[in-house]
Amino acid sequence: MSHDAHLAPIADGLYAWLPDGRGTWGLANCGLLVSEGQAALIDTPYDLPRTRALLEAAAPVLGPQGRIGTAITTHSNGDHSYGLAALGDVEIIGTRDYLHALDHEPTPQQMHALVAETPPDQPTSWYLRRHFGRFDFTGIDPVAPTRTFSGSLELRIGAAEVRLVQAGPAHTDGDLWVHLPQHGVVFTGDVVFADDHPVHWAGPIDNVIDACLGILATGAQVIVPGHGPLMTPADLRGHIDYLRWVRDGAHRLHALGVPAQSAALQLIDSGRYPGLGLPERLAITVATEYRHLAGETGTPDLVVLVGAAARIALGREQARIPGQRSGADDPSNAAPQ
Ligand SMILES: [Zn+2]
What pLDDT was estimated at residue 330? Predict the structure, then answer.
């Protein structure tokens, strides 16, 4: 089985697990910090086979006596946390709000059922299979943080200083990012995506922008996004410009009374960021921003949000390949609603 990732050294005793996940969901970046016989993992892959592959790659770095004693989990989405189940007896650190966010996160069993057991003739099922069908959601018992904090938390792993900063609600309700001041590196979790349109479930977008500005203010020269290749501070500044564009566009269209799904389509059709993959994710981020503009405080239905993205993706696919339906057989379902 190919695990489409490798452990790359990015600073002294610091490694990044960088799957090539461009244009798809779920292939998250992870980090490994090793110092004076201690080690910490930052996030995990989505499933147990991929997590075991990471641990195998880490073994030569850890040495015969080394073990991972700490796992830092940037947020509750499974693509960053399901692999915690493979780590055994470790301290798991996340934000206090992570525990709340976990309440409305799909379980591995639900993900397996959504991907494997739903009829493939609906846009949502088609989309979930396309992007999540590569993962093995079986045999995973979700594991929650054993140590939580709000605000910020300073840690020491061997001689290495580690600073955790709460960012949520932003991508999710319980985000954090990880600053390694001696290394000049930040692991952002999913408050930052590279190469693809980001997806933000909690918002508002201003909170995501504030997190990005906080990351820039550290002066770190290497930024490891939640997904995609390593970034420079200049790359992150460009990403902040993108977020402001989405925010301003969503606010303008909301004020005009344009429904969220149509607003997402208008932003996509503007062609402003043609190099970014997964433009359909704008349906989710714009819907998130609209909820804030409407003062809604309830928990959104994640499957409904993915369905909105799926309809756009299918519509674009059918426009690109006339006559081909890519496994979803009711074109009326592809029409934006
Ligand atoms: Zn992610």
Answer: 38
Scan for tokens 């069908």, then name that residue: 133
pLDDT band, residue 334 (cuts 50/70/90): very low
The rounded Å distance from CA 92 to ligand 1 centre is: 18
CA angle 315/126/208 to nearest 5° reads 75
How many Å lie between the centroid of ligand 1 and the Cα of residue 132? 12
pLDDT confidence of residue 102: 85
Interval between CA 65 and ligand 1 midpoint (Å)? 31
pLDDT at 225 over 80: yes
Q: Position 75: which residue type?
A: H
Ligand 1 centroid to Cα of residue 37, in Å, is 29
For ligand 1, the distance from its centroid to the CA atom of residue 26, given in whole angstroms, is: 6
What CATH superfamily classification does 7-334 receive?
Answer: Ribonuclease Z/Hydroxyacylglutathione hydrolase-like (3.60.15.10)
pLDDT > 70: percent of the chain? 94
The alpha carbon of 293 and the centre of ligand 1 are apart by a number of angstroms equal to 25
| pLDDT tens track for 232-288 | 999 999 999 999 999 999 999 999 999 999 999 999 999 999 999 999 999 999 999
Q: Which residues 6+ apart lie within 8 Å of 263 measured at CB?
A: 249, 250, 253, 254, 286, 290
User: How far, in Å, from the CA of 175 to the mean position of ligand 1?
Assistant: 11
Q: Strand 91-95: give its sheet, edge to edge.
A: 7-11, 14-17, 30-35, 38-42, 70-72, 91-95, 147-149
Give yes or no for a contact between 126 and 316, defined as CB atoms under 8 angstroms apart: no
